[in-house]
Amino acid sequence: MTIPPAEFSRLVPLARLASGSCRRRIAAQPGERRALAARFGLVALDRLEADVVLRRRAGGIVLLEAALEAEFVQSCVVTLEPVRNTVAERFALRYGRSEAAEADLISAAEEATFEPLAGDAIDIGEAVAQELSLQLPLFPRLAGAAIEADAENGPPRVKPVG
């Protein structure tokens, strides 16, 4: 069974880390942004960029450190009108074989989530996309949007913005 590539795939072969580290600046192209917007239920994903560094660690661990920036549009949970938002976030992940996870527990002070390493490459684009999904507001709301409840006059009504 073949697994389809991720919408924002940027594979870095582990062989590129022979010298110890690798730095990449990645940016999602328009088609990739549209596919990610559909995946995450966004109205639009206007920008997704990241600076990513991969470093070899002892015990077969690879540390990914990244800074991502994104501009996107979601639907307001009250009015369904578009809500513009941005994210600028730093994150880290540790990659390794499952047996390396146990040996690396002691050095987990870096507080980076452990990801099992399968194959001979790390998809830094997918790592950035997954982190973006974790940073998206769960209940985007326009400033001033509210639902008014009036027990005497029936069901709740949406209070207009402004």
Largest sheet: 5 strands, mixed
Order of SSEs, N→C? EEHEEEHEEHEE
**Beta-strand share of residues:** 35-45%
Portion in helices: 10-25%
Question: Can you characterise this structure?
Answer:
The protein has 162 residues and is α+β, with helices and mostly antiparallel strands. The protein has one domain. It contains three helices and nine strands. The mean pLDDT is 86.
List keywords for this structure.
162 residues, alpha+beta, five-stranded mixed β-sheet, two-stranded antiparallel ribbon, 3 helices, 9 strands, 40% strand
Brief sketch in words of this structure:
By secondary structure, this protein is an alpha+beta fold. The protein is 19% helix and 40% strand. The radius of gyration is 20 Å and the shape is elongated.
Topology:
Layout: E1 11-13, E2 21-27, H1 30-40, E3 44-56, E4 62-75, E5 82-96, H2 98-104, E6 113-116, E7 121-123, H3 124-135, E8 146-148, E9 157-159
Parallel strand pairs: 5-6
Antiparallel strand pairs: 1-7, 2-3, 3-4, 4-5, 8-9
